[in-house]
């Protein structure tokens, strides 16, 4: 019910508005026409796709796409679109709109567009762009949504749930039934069933198709795969060494250096260039005289706020991370060496390299296997397309043999015995339904030729039948026990059902109360409701709850499959107030919320019907 309501109650189109749909051209095969707007199959499919993705995101592993294949769900999806366009045209006909102030307030309150609880313009633009929307489009959609709410809000505000109606819905949803149950097991009946040979033979002849042994075949097959081509490629040490030299940078760890600096102004209002440079040279001279004061002088003099508090430390970095002048100085110095003044766009730097790591090249022997695999993969890619064409020709020309494909391509013939369609645990090459269909085709069975080459994943496969056994009926002696078990079950079921129906008829006639002889073997009275099945099987509880109050007391016979039957003596009803008093409050609240949603849905449907008086609606597709 919640899923249906999710589909039916008008969703917000704030981020995926109607504007995107209005570009769909009119279609003579429209599913529905709302006013002068035709709803096309393409538009319906797009909405359906969005709803499927929303449901998949909400349900995770529990998502079942088959839900969206039912006619009921498709009708409700169409109803949703119809309602949207009814609202749109109602807004237009009543000249409703929203003010700029209301628009701005609504957008600024949207959490998606906020950073630390406040509206952020860059976040707003980025999130819209991710959804393929411009601010203009989004604002038009939001403005429409606010205008649409002027149509819906009076309806939804009126959704005060009257107490009398709530009580009536509670009685419909939550009223229980007081019931006694007796199980009629098939085991006792089965023990008394005698099956004759005539019955066995008659059942076998009538149902011979059920006892067929599947067709099977012993097959040979060959597989051309990228790995089979790759395995044949041979390389010399010279090939590997040349590749290593060409790609040596890939087998090296990048050199990183750790440095610290003091950054001082090179340009400053109120100071000349000469004065600033002299000040930097003074600090440099002090450092050369006392290198141990680098951190102290950095904190006192550096204008780089990020590194100054760290004594000028910049951490490790590789080439490309810093401006060129600074990088050149750092990567040309030795560890512990102090630079001269290095001028960049930021000012004068005094630099010291404090550590060096990386830059080592892996030895050829340590990467030889990696290089060999890379070269073979590259060569395989170049050769595989041609090999696929050759494979297709060779298996076709080979007739009833794979010898030519084996010689030309270096393949290996593999075998599998007693292959049957759908057999589990097959080799990958034989699992594919296309391959099995070719193997068991009439031409393959009759001539035992190689099948055509078939693509299975990245591989190519061809197979041929060596020996074939057609589907045949299994001997009656082989299936006799299963026939006896089936007939015994059927006869026991008939006898048990006869007794169950007789007992139910007697209960309906005598209308017994507690202690009556006819109730021997029945359980004590149990109260079943939508909030709890009192330990009864689902089928029994459902049947009991479907018993109308006016029918009570009433006997019900419920089939339990291989477990026989249950005879339920539904004695009386249990008021919803009594059920709610004993149930989990959270469960009660859930059902009351559902009742409120049902009431709200009814109001929306009424609003829709009211809008139809102003806007003509024609439904052309009924699914």
From TrEMBL:
GO cellular component: plasma membrane
Record's bilayer topology term: Single-pass type II membrane protein
Domain PpiC positions: 254-355
UniProt KW Transmembrane keyword: yes
Main location: membrane
Highest taxon, organism lineage: Bacteria
Subcellular localization(s) per the UniProt record: Cell inner membrane
Keywords on record: Cell inner membrane, Cell membrane, Chaperone, Isomerase, Membrane, Rotamase, Transmembrane, Transmembrane helix
The keyword Transmembrane helix is annotated on this UniProt entry: yes
Record GO terms (molecular function): peptidyl-prolyl cis-trans isomerase activity
InterPro entries: PPIase_dom_sf, PPIase_PpiC, PPIase_PpiC_CS, PpiD_chaperone, Trigger_fact/SurA_dom_sf
One protein family per Pfam: Rotamase_3
UniProt xrefs under PANTHER family: PEPTIDYL-PROLYL CIS-TRANS ISOMERASE D (PTHR47529), PERIPLASMIC CHAPERONE PPID (PTHR47529:SF1)
Family under the similarity heading: Belongs to the PpiD chaperone family.
Name by which UniProt lists this protein: Periplasmic chaperone PpiD
Organism: Limnobacter thiooxidans
The organism's taxonomic lineage, starting at the top: Bacteria, Pseudomonadati, Pseudomonadota, Betaproteobacteria, Burkholderiales
């Amino acid at each position: 019910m919640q899923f249906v309501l999710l589909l039916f109650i008008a969703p917000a189109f704030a981020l995926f508005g109607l504007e995107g749909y209005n570009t769909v051209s009119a279609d003579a095969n429209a599913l529905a026409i709302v006013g002068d707007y035709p709803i096309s199959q393409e538009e319906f499919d797009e909405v359906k796709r969005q709803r499927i993705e929303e449901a998949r995101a909400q349900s995770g592993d529990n998502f079942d796409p088959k839900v969206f294949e039912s006619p009921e769900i498709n009708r409700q999806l169409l109803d949703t679109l119809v309602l949207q366009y009814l609202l749109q045209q109602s807004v237009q006909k009543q000249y409703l709109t929203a003010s700029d102030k209301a628009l701005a307030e609504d957008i600024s309150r949207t959490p998606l567009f906020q950073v630390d609880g406040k509206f952020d313009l860059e976040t707003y633009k980025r999130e819209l762009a991710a959804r393929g929307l411009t601010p203009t489009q989004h604002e038009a959609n939001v403005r429409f949504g606010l205008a649409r709410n002027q149509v819906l809000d009076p309806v939804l505000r009126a959704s005060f749930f009257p107490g009398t109606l709530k009580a009536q819905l509670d009685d419909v949803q939550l009223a229980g039934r007081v019931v006694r149950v007796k199980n009629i097991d098939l085991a006792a009946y089965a023990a008394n069933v005698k099956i004759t040979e005539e019955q066995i033979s008659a059942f076998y002849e009538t149902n011979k198709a059920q006892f067929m042994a599947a067709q099977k075949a012993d097959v040979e097959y060959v597989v051309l795969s990228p790995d089979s081509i790759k395995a044949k490629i041979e390389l010399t040490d010279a090939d590997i060494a040349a590749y290593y030299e060409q790609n040596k940078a890939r087998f090296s760890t990048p050199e990183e250096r750790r440095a610290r600096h003091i950054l001082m102004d090179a340009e400053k209002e109120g100071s000349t260039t000469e004065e600033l440079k002299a000040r930097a040279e003074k600090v440099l001279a002090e450092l050369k005289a006392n290198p141990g004061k680098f951190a102290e002088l950095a904190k006192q003099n550096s204008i780089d706020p990020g590194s100054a508090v760290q004594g000028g430390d910049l951490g490790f970095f590789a080439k490309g991370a810093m401006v060129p002048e600074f990088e050149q100085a750092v990567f040309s110095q030795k560890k512990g060496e102090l630079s001269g003044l290095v001028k960049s766009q930021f000012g004068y730097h005094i630099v010291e390299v404090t550590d060096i790591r990386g830059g080592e090249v892996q030895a050829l022997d340590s990467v030889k296997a990696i290089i060999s695999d890379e070269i073979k993969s590259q060569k395989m890619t170049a050769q595989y397309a041609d090999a696929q064409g050759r494979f297709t020709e060779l298996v076709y020309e080979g007739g009833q043999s794979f010898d030519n494909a084996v010689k030309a391509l270096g393949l290996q013939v593999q075998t599998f015995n007693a292959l049957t369609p759908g057999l589990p645990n097959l080799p990958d090459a034989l699992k594919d339904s296309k391959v099995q269909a070719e193997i068991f085709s009439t031409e393959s069975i009759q001539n035992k030729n190689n099948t055509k080459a078939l693509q299975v994943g990245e591989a190519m496969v061809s197979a041929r039948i060596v020996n074939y056994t057609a589907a045949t009926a299994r001997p009656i002696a082989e299936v006799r026990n299963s026939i006896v078990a089936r007939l015994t079950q059927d006869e026991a079921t008939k006898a048990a059902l006869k007794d169950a129906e007789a007992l139910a008829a007697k209960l309906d006639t005598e209308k017994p109360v507690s202690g009556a002889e006819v109730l021997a073997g029945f359980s004590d009275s149990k109260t079943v409701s939508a909030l709890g099945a009192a330990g009864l099987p689902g089928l029994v509880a459902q049947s009991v709850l479907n018993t109308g109050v006016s029918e009570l007391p009433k006997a019900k016979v419920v089939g339990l499959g291989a477990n026989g039957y249950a005879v339920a003596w539904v004695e009386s009803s249990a008021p919803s107030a009594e059920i709610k008093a004993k149930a989990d409050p959270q469960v009660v609240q859930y059902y009351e919320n559902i009742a409120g949603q049902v009431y709200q849905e009814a109001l929306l449907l009424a609003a829709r019907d009211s809008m139809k008086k102003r806007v003509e609606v024609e439904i052309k597709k009924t699914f």
